[in-house]
Amino acid sequence: MRLVDLPRFPLATLPTPLDEAPRLGAELGGIRVLVKRDDLTGLALGGNKTRKLEYLLGDALQRGATTVLTEGPVQSNHCRQTAAAAARAGLRCVLVLSGSELAPPVQGNLLLDYLFGATVQVVRTREERAALLAAEARACAERGERPYVIPTGGSTAVGAAAYVQATLELVQQLVARNARPTALYVATSTSGGTHAGLVLGARLLGDPFRVIGVAVEEDGEAIRRRVAALANETAAVLGLAVRIEDREVVVDDRWVGPGYGSADERTVEAMVLAARTEGLVLDPVYTGKAMAALIGDARTGAFQPGETVVFWHTGGAPAVFAHAERLAPAFRGERPVER
Predict the structure, then answer these.
(1) Is-contact 244 232, C-beta < 8 A?
(2) Is there a contact between 224 and 252 (Cβ–Cβ < 8 Å)?
């Protein structure tokens, strides 16, 4: 099957912009930084999952689904965008979320989940989350609904195919600018869908740049294996005679910090620098860590002045508001004093 033959439900505003970041580049030794703005995909305050959901909901609708079910952390960007996409498609949405609190504050992505009309259930662990998701899907089927289960992050071969298409979109924009980047930075995790699509897309286009996946959780080797496997599954779905080996997938796991969902000083500093040079809003879970990697590499001489790098902005702005306590110390001395 070719990419154009996959069923697709339009959700995103495409192509997303490829923005110059000259002030950030100047701060990093005079390199050229281009930002691929998938935070501006349009649906539900944007994000990379919207591209995947176009293909996932296309598949769901073709199969006659009436209910979409998915899972993620309480502040999941994927779940927020899935809830909005289901509302747009007229489907019921069930979200199974996990977090340290069973009654978490209704803020950030969780607030939007409720706003979009999703049925939300919260458990404490990933294991409980997976079990409850399966149970909810069975219950839907028993009631006569037609459930369509989307795994964490929308990371299936169908979802990853969206980022094969996105790679072509990016390369067309690069050609129009006569830009030849040597590296592309993107946040990656054990779900790996965006990273896998970009790796496969780059391979199909002759590897015009090095795709650097910046891990946002521990176990870079597991992420590497997952990304390679998913890239190969996606190639098979698209009928492509391409194979990605584990060793060809680049995963930089030096920027994880305290762990998934937690930011260290390097991530917070990257968020502040991106905001104050380019007005970019990054989040402490994904894009802040990916930007910290780009900044760290630039500062240690990985790039020559004038060299071009791409930062793939995957979104996540709503989650920023759920991390106010972690970010507030960065502004100590700048906030007005109560009189």
Answers:
(1) yes
(2) no
Q: What is the pTM of this model?
A: 0.96
Residue 76 is among the residues annotated as catalytic for this protein: yes
**Catalytic-role residue among 76, 98, 155, 189:** 76
The answer regarding whether domain 3-47+155-331 maps to CATH 3.40.190.10 reads no
Query: Would you say the CATH fold of 49-153 matches that of 3-47+155-331?
Result: yes
Give the DSSP H/E element, type plus range, for residue 250.
Answer: strand 250-252
In CATH, the architecture of 49-153 is 3-Layer(aba) Sandwich (3.40)
- Per-residue confidence of the chain (339 residues) as pLDDT tens digits? 689 999 999 999 999 999 999 999 999 999 999 999 999 999 999 999 999 999 999 999 999 999 999 999 999 999 999 999 999 999 999 999 999 999 999 999 999 999 999 999 999 999 999 999 999 999 999 999 999 999 999 999 999 999 999 999 999 999 999 999 999 999 999 999 999 999 999 999 999 999 999 999 999 999 999 999 999 999 999 999 999 999 999 999 999 999 999 999 999 999 999 999 999 999 999 999 999 999 999 999 999 999 999 999 999 999 999 888 888 888 876 755 554
Amino acid at 68: V
